[in-house]
TrEMBL record:
PANTHER family: DEHYDROGENASES, SHORT CHAIN, ESTRADIOL 17-BETA-DEHYDROGENASE 8-RELATED. This is Short-chain dehydrogenase/reductase SDR. The lineage of its organism: Bacteria, Pseudomonadati, Pseudomonadota, Betaproteobacteria, Burkholderiales. The keyword tRNA-binding does not apply. Gene3D superfamilies: NAD(P)-binding Rossmann-like Domain (3.40.50.720).
Length: 252
């Protein structure tokens, strides 16, 4: 799954799945622009990536802002001349509340980051790839909560269902220009986000995923390997796909 000589763009790269993806892409030979709104997390992620022999740079960017996302894509192109692949992992978990307890501020925050953010990223990334006339590959990190409902946060589930709609629609619209757009749907993954969710429920990570068929959460590296495959030549005939990587959570 070589990405040798490719330029990659990863959002949410300061932590968790995004960070593991940036690392996996760099180890596969890509130059990676690590994008996140958290500057100090980005600095740590870039240092770790370079320590592992990878190459890349960082760009502070809030994916809610279309101008900032376009500037981040322009930054990658300015440094490398082209954009070949992108993974959109920036997201927030919302809050563990039933629908009647969710307020508009929570709904707007979750939709703004998880759905509008991916919409901004797709538009900037696809626009750049079309201008290069050489195709490209994009992976959106959705969620098992984009396939089934959530007992924890309806707004989060709705935002991730929306990400799948964006993924499939973009795949239909730009497949003819060889831009492939796919999604990965994890259930629990051992990241800071999962730790926050589990601790807000008064539980600990050790029992996370106990009820899944495989009896555990995924690791961020496992999700990164799915994103890497989807951006590789091995997935050249795959677009509009929704890849469940959820330790069997949605198999039932
Ligand atoms: N961890 C899980 O159990 C799990 C399960 C399914 C899906 N996901 C999805 O995977 C993605 C990554 O989650 P994670 O577990 O790595 O979370 P995380 O909290 O560890 O990392 C998320 C990163 O996104 C960044 N971010 C948040 N809002 C941003 C914004 N507006 N602009 C730019 N960056 C922003 C954060 O600063 C952070 O570095 C999310 O989209 C999440 O919904 C996670």
């Amino acid at each position: 799954m070589s990405l040798h000589g490719k330029t990659a763009f990863v959002t949410g790269a300061g932590s968790g799945i995004g960070q593991a993806t940036a690392m996996a892409f760099a180890q596969a030979g890509a130059w990676v622009l690590l994008v996140d709104r958290d500057e100090s997390a980005l600095a740590g992620a870039l240092a770790a990536l370079r320590q592992g022999g990878g190459q890349g740079a960082t760009m502070v960017c809030d994916v809610r802002q279309g101008d900032a996302v376009r500037a981040a894509v322009a930054c990658a192109v300015q440094q490398r001349g082209a954009l070949d692949c992108a993974v959109n992992a920036a997201g927030v978990e919302g809050a563990s509340k039933t629908l009647l307890d969710e307020d508009e501020a929570l709904f707007e925050q979750v939709m703004d980051i998880n759905l509008r953010g991916v919409w901004h990223c797709l538009r900037a990334q696809i626009g750049q790839m079309l201008s290069q006339r050489a195709g490209g590959a994009i992976v959106n990190i959705a969620s098992a909560a984009g396939l089934v409902g959530s007992r924890r946060c309806a707004a989060y589930s709705a935002s991730k269902h929306g990400v799948l709609g964006l993924t499939r629609s973009a795949a239909l619209q730009y497949g003819g220009q060889r831009v492939r757009i796919n999604a990965v749907c994890p259930a629990g993954v051992s990241t800071d986000m999962a730790r926050r969710i589990v601790s807000s429920a008064g539980q600990d990570m050790a029992g996370g995923g106990r009820n899944y068929p495989l009896g555990r959460y995924s690791t961020p590296q496992e999700i990164a390997s799915g994103a890497l495959w989807l951006c590789s030549e091995g997935a050249a005939s795959t677009t509009g796909a929704v890849l469940s990587m959820d330790c069997g959570f949605t198999a039932a």
